[in-house]
Amino acid sequence: MGRDSCEAPFISPATLRWLFLAVIVVVWELVPRLGLVPSVMLAPASEAMIAGFQDFGTFARALGITFGQLASALIFAYGIGALAGLLLGSVYFLRETLLPIVSSIYAVPLVIVYPLLTAWVGIGPESKVIFGALYGFFPMALSVAAGVQTVDRQYILAARSMGARTSQILFQIMLPASVPSILSGLRIGGAMTAIGVVVAEMMAATGGIGFLITQNRTMFNTAEVYFGIFLVLILTGLLDMFIRLMERCFTNWYPKET
After folding, report:
1. Cβ count near 156 (within 10 Å)
2. pTM of this structure
């Protein structure tokens, strides 16, 4: 009993998380109030909330636009990224030739591609979806490829000896065995996709949260800028919560080693 009581945390992780967020909000409110930072650079949290709710209709419409573009981008980033990672990690020729190229491209700042996208497809939602999907594709593909390479080859040899087809090996052995890496790719890829969509909206757009942030920044409406940033954090936080829920479901389903 003594050992269990010593190892038990004094504060639960969830409580500690909320306390940490509360400290951030208090610091956010007090730093500009005390004059430590000019309010034109950092608006107090209360002013940001008041300004945002006063013009909540505009922000709600912008949030809907961003959410729609993000959802579309995630479908492409997750779907194509998982399929590409599965092929890159399981096919020797692709792993040796294309995987290093994909890793190198991921290291390049993709923001340089967006001006080309706007020239090709315009500044409408299509360019935001494509740019966000590109941002999320690479971490998703690389995570799945890394997970596939960790699969025990004895399972593959056993499946082949029993006459399993290549598609069966890919989707019934390699893919389920790569679940931990896939979940990691979902989290990183989702965050990167959200960044890509919002950054694209900030660079050239006619709507969305990123567009509102840039518009209010140029007019020195600092409170509205921080409310827009707050909405982006809420959106990405909800996405992370959804992925954590999926992770718990897969953890309960995934067979435990004995």
Report:
1. 17
2. 0.80
Here the tokens at position 212 are 């509102």
Q: CA angle, 117 as apex, 113 and 123 as ends, to 5°?
A: 125
In the prediction, which pLDDT does 258 show? Answer: 44
Q: For the chain, what is the total number of helices (H) and then of strands (E)?
A: 14, 0
Q: What are the sequence ranges of the domains in the chain?
A: 52-253
d(CA 106, CA 134) in angstroms, rounded, equals 9
Q: Is 45 exposed, middle or buried (0-12, 13-18, 19+ CB in 10 A)?
A: buried
| Homologous superfamily of the 52-253 domain (CATH) | MetI-like (1.10.3720.10)
The percent of residues in the chain predicted with pLDDT above 70, rounded, is 93
Percent of residues, the chain, with pLDDT higher than 90: 14
| C-alpha distances out from residue 13 to 6, 9, 19, 255, Å | 16, 8, 10, 26
Contact 140, 186 (CB under 8 A): yes
